[in-house]
Amino acid sequence: MQTKKVINHIVSWLEEYSTKSSMEGFVLGISGGIDSAVTSALCAQTSKKLICLNLPIHQAPNQLERSNNHIKWLKEKYTGVSSEVVELTATFDQICGDYPKEVQDELTMANVRARLRMTTLYAFAGHHRYLVAGTGNKVEDFGVGFYTKYGDGGVDLSPIADLMKSHVYEIAKELGVIEEIQNASPTDGLWGDDRSDEDQLGASYPELEWAMEFDGDESALPERKMEILAIYRKLNKVNQHKMNPIPVCTIPKDLFK
Fold first, then answer.
1. How far apart are CA 205 and CA 8, in angstroms?
2. Can you give the pTM of this predicted structure?
3. Is 228 a domain residue?
């Protein structure tokens, strides 16, 4: 990958899109992970302003520390960057108190966390006339659908969604993103613990990238690669409802007569 040229292309795209939208800048949540770190650094390179939001909900301390350290690095390196910490733990706990216990399974409430954060991002975006920048990469957004519908999937534009996870790491290295983020295990931070994306998916991002691009003879593949293909295909199939447009019931024209 021609990393510097890709960086310049994305920054120019962000600049052009925001200008055409008559918006003043960008807002995004900083998770302490590589995707939000790279996306925020790319947004910061534009002439627009950037608000970085730290939105902890029962957050693991190391994730919160990485988020704060990245925001500090951004502010030192780029102008026009501001930040806010919006502690959402009490809000989330109130929601838990209001919901019937029978709907509060672990996955459902993890998705509620993501949607609560999305609501907060759009509150800031709407007030400041900013765009919510998505942080999903190509594997997550178009391969396995590893995001929350109307949560971290609820965004105005997606700067890195055509980049594989490995490409995101290349850009992070080129941009000089702090080492602790480059070296951290990828995690969505929705569970209040340190479980990684690989723990949830059953495969690493390099493995999923391979499966996403595989178009060869399966008969000679070793057992692990067959497992990876099965994981990828299952996730890709069950998450099509996220990756495809919302279905619209089209009414036959003769019924309007």
1. 25
2. 0.91
3. no
Residue 248 lies in a domain: no
Q: Summarize the confidence of residues 3-7 as an average pLDDT.
A: 95
Which band of pLDDT confidence, cut at 50, 70 and 90, is reported for residue 14?
very high
> Which residue range(s) make up the domain with 36?
3-197
Report the domain count for the chain. 1
Q: How far is CA 88 from the centre of its chain?
A: 18
* 49-53, 69-73, 200-204: segment of lowest average pLDDT: 200-204
Q: How confident is the model at residue 135 (pLDDT cuts 50, 70, 90)?
A: very high
Token code pair at residue 232: 């990828």
What CATH number does residue 53 fall under? 3.40.50.620
181, part of any domain: yes
The C-alpha atoms of residue 164 and residue 72 are separated, in whole angstroms, by: 26
DSSP 250: P
CA–CA gap between residue 126 and residue 5 (Å, rounded): 32
Tell me the residue ranges of DSSP E strands in the chain. 25-29, 49-54, 81-85, 130-132
**CA dihedral sign, ordered 119, 130, 44, 164:** positive
pLDDT value for 7: 96
| Measured CA distances, 144 to 195, 204, 209 (Å) | 18, 12, 10
Phi, psi of 255 (to 5 degrees): -75, -15
Residue found under tokens 């970085």: 52
- CB within 8 Å of 200: residues ≥ 6 apart: 146, 188
CB contact set of 66 (below 8 Å; sequence gap of 6+): 32, 33, 178, 180, 181, 184
Q: According to the model, what pLDDT value does residue 63 have?
A: 85
Residue 250 lies in a domain: no
